[in-house]
Amino acid sequence: xxxxxxxxxxxxxxxxxxxxxxxxxxxxxxxxxxxxxxxxxxxxxxxxxxxxxxxxxxxxxxxxxxxxxxxxxxxxxxxxxxxxxxxxxxxxxxxxxxxxxxxxxxxxxxxxxxxxxxxxxxxxxxxxxxxxxxxxxxxxxxxxxxxxxxxxxxxxxxxxxxxxxxxxxxxxxxxxxxxxxxxxxxxxxxxxxxxxxxxxxxxxxxxxxxxxxxxxxxxxxxxxxxxxxxxxxxxxxxxxxxxxxxxxxxxxxxxxxxxxxx
Length: 262
Known about the structure:
By secondary structure, the protein is mainly alpha-helical.
């Protein structure tokens, strides 16, 4: 029986790998322009992402620089001999009055909160803006700013600080129900990172102001037992002693000034 010899062309025609290569070559030949456009688009996208990240990085750096300057104003010293320009005597700002300090800091924080509203820097700025506004007597605006921080999802710890300030503000306004709801919520929130003994101290003061002596004593005892070597231990012990001795009316509702800071 004779054998049939195949030509090279016939062998290649029956080779599936060769056939696939031919099809790919033909595809690239026919779709060359489209592929070039897609490749160019990919390159442009990569360049866009690079410069976009560079822009975001420079924007974040600028926002942090502005926040640092605003915090410098907020913590500035008071000097009766300070010039009109807070930087007139050097790199550290000075103000003649506390009101002037708060006005300058409030403006700086408001600018940051407006310009970088969706960033963490903007949330921090809005928190301090709320503190400034409370001190300046701008209560409605302060509550709006702090409520926005309270409900943020970017920085939960700062949200808890805002809640604490709001609770003290509502207690000052004798809106004990609102203050109690906030503090109860944080005390029972396992994710709340603020010291529970501090929150219970505030809540005990609210109970005491309403004449709920037994509830206040119970909370203060719990807080004292939880305090350990906390700096609050002496305050908790003193206020508990006053209540147990019948001096509940001497217990203040809130501290004399708002100093709740992250």
